[in-house]
């Protein structure tokens, strides 16, 4: 009998396997061909794929795969053909796609992918199908040369692609790319005539616009500081106007074709009533005397959506207690329903957890969170950093937490069946493995407990509060060392106060005992 570890070809297509469960995790590591197409697998692609360094052919089309693709393709240099078509995969293409140096046939059609496809530009592709998705931006010129290319059914930009950066001449003594060493530059086909605007002209125009914008911004800020001294203190029954940010005011400046700058009519401010005051409230009042935070952080690295305070206030009913769904060590979580019907969860970070953090450091945390993509980790949808407020927007799971299912059962909630408990155990284990072994550097959770394991309608687990260790360390003085007294913390944490990968594993073991026995970890 042949051992599974030596198996190189596995074809289980068109068998209706899965029954809407995830692809098995422990697949044979030496596979060269894997075909699981036309089944009913859901969830994401297992991380054991990263161990299949000999894999040449991967076919997962016509399943129920969903969620974002994780960066599991960096160790697959031999993968030449991949078909992920006809699933429900979402989000941007992972950067590890650029490591598929042998890829010549790629099928991604009939999914819900978003963002650009620039990550595919340098692959040796001969067949590419990205039709019927939500891709945007421009199709790279290198991909347009592919003979078998399908890109219809997307939201490509219709205008011209953005120009390359202004040309910078090489240092003295070095030859330019179009120049032989010691010789003159080769003549162009138009007899040496310049085509378009020169790099120096473009650079001059850009510098002029930046200088003028800086001068206008200075006067706008100065005018606002004058007006702020005349404003009275906000009362409880008064409505208040959210001031425009500097970026909005700069957008209201029009540049005519003659190069003259003229301000347009200012937009009407949005009026909102302040949040209601109650004795349970932890939401910090918005201080409108402060200008919105000027974000020097490079927001291009953040894939999550930037929300305004006004948007989140309207979606949560001004952070009403009626919409409060949970409270943790670093802040409260509110249910938010938007105008398009989408329901999300908004975590308002307490000021006590933000003692030594700047807004730029908050954006760095958001950037790190936006790169966490796993089917068993709650997805960061958006964020807000305005008027001294720092909020995170996540997916919303109506079923609540594992803690609720185990310890707060009522007449409407049935006990968890054994199969569901096994599914929850495997899912949380995979989430922790992703944080510890796939992420680089490793992510220490610090607050692994059943209350942070959320369940969807199919009882799939989703680990929350990942990547928030920075805020947790600041909030420890108010939270009494987080899990101390709850039974989840490892003994060495109580002695040294230091969290490690091993302390996370200890907490995971406690959750497994809790799941197995139905008893609380700390019970007098």
Automatic annotation (TrEMBL):
GO terms for molecular function: ATP binding; protein serine/threonine kinase activity. Its EC number is 2.7.11.1. Residues 319-524 form the Protein kinase domain. InterPro entries: Kinase-like_dom_sf (IPR011009), Leu-rich_rpt (IPR001611), Leu-rich_rpt_typical-subtyp (IPR003591), LRR_dom_sf (IPR032675), Prot_kinase_dom (IPR000719), Ser-Thr/Tyr_kinase_cat_dom (IPR001245), Ser_Thr_Kinases_DiverseReg (IPR051420). It is found in: Membrane. Residues 173-186 have a biased composition (Low complexity). Pfam families: LRR_1, LRR_8, PK_Tyr_Ser-Thr. Residues 160-172 have a biased composition (Pro residues). GO terms for cellular component: membrane. It comes from the Eukaryota. It catalyses: L-seryl-[protein] + ATP = O-phospho-L-seryl-[protein] + ADP + H(+); L-threonyl-[protein] + ATP = O-phospho-L-threonyl-[protein] + ADP + H(+). Signal peptide: none annotated. The chain crosses the membrane at residues 197-221. Residues 150-194 are annotated as: Disordered. PANTHER family: LEUCINE RICH REPEAT KINASE 2, PROTEIN STRUBBELIG-RECEPTOR FAMILY 7. This is non-specific serine/threonine protein kinase. It comes from Acorus gramineus. The lineage of its organism: Eukaryota, Viridiplantae, Streptophyta, Embryophyta, Tracheophyta.
């Amino acid at each position: 009998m042949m051992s599974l570890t030596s198996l190189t070809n596995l074809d289980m297509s068109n068998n209706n396997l899965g029954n809407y469960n995830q692809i098995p995790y422990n697949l044979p590591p030496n596979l060269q061909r894997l075909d699981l197409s036309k089944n009913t697998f859901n969830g994401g692609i297992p991380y054991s794929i990263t161990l299949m360094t000999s894999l040449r052919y991967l076919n997962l089309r016509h399943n129920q795969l969903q969620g974002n693709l994780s960066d599991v393709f960096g160790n697959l240099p031999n993968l030449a053909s991949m078909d992920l078509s006809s699933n429900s995969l979402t989000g941007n293409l992972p950067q590890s796609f650029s490591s598929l140096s042998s890829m010549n046939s790629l099928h991604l059609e009939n999914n819900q992918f978003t963002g650009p496809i620039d990550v595919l530009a340098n692959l040796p592709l001969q067949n590419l199908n990205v039709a019927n998705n939500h891709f945007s931006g421009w199709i790279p010129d290198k991909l347009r040369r592919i003979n078998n290319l399908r890109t219809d059914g997307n939201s490509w930009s219709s205008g011209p692609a953005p120009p390359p950066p202004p040309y910078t001449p090489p240092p003295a003594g070095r030859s330019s790319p179009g120049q032989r060493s010691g010789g003159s530059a080769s003549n162009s086909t138009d007899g040496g005539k310049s085509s378009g605007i020169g790099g120096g002209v473009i650079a001059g125009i850009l510098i002029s616009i930046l200088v003028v914008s800086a001068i206008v911004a200075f006067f706008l800020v100065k005018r606002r500081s004058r007006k702020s001294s005349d404003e009275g203190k906000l009362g409880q029954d008064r409505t208040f106007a959210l001031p425009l940010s500097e970026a909005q005011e700069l957008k209201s400046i029009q540049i005519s074709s003659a190069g003259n700058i003229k301000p347009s009519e200012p937009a009407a401010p949005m009026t909102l009533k302040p949040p209601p005051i109650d004795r349970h409230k932890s939401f910090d009042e918005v201080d409108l005397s402060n200008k919105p935070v000027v974000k020097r952080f490079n927001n291009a690295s953040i894939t999550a959506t930037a929300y305004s305070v006004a948007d989140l206030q309207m979606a949560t009913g001004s952070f009403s207690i009626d919409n409060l769904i949970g409270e943790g060590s670093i802040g409260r979580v509110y249910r938010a329903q938007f105008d398009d019907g989408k329901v999300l969860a908004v975590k308002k970070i307490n000021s006590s957890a933000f003692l030594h953090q700047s807004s730029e450091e908050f954006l760095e945390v958001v950037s790190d969170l936006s790169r966490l993509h796993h089917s068993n980790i709650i997805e960061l949808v958006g964020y807000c950093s305005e008027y001294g407020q720092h909020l995170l927007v996540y997916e919303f799971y109506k079923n609540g937490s594992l803690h609720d299912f185990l310890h707060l059962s009522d007449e409407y909630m049935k006990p968890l069946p054994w199969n569901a408990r096994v599914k929850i155990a495997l899912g949380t284990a995979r989430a922790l493995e992703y944080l510890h072994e796939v992420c680089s550097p490793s992510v220490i959770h610090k607050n692994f407990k059943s209350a942070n394991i959320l369940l969807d309608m199919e009882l799939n687990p989703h680990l929350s509060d990942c990547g928030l260790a920075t805020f947790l360390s600041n909030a420890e003085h108010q939270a009494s060392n987080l899990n101390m007294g709850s039974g989840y913390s490892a003994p060495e944490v109580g002695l040294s106060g230091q969290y490690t990968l091993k302390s996370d594993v200890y907490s995971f073991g406690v959750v497994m005992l809790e799941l197995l026995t139905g008893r609380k970890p700390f019970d007098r």
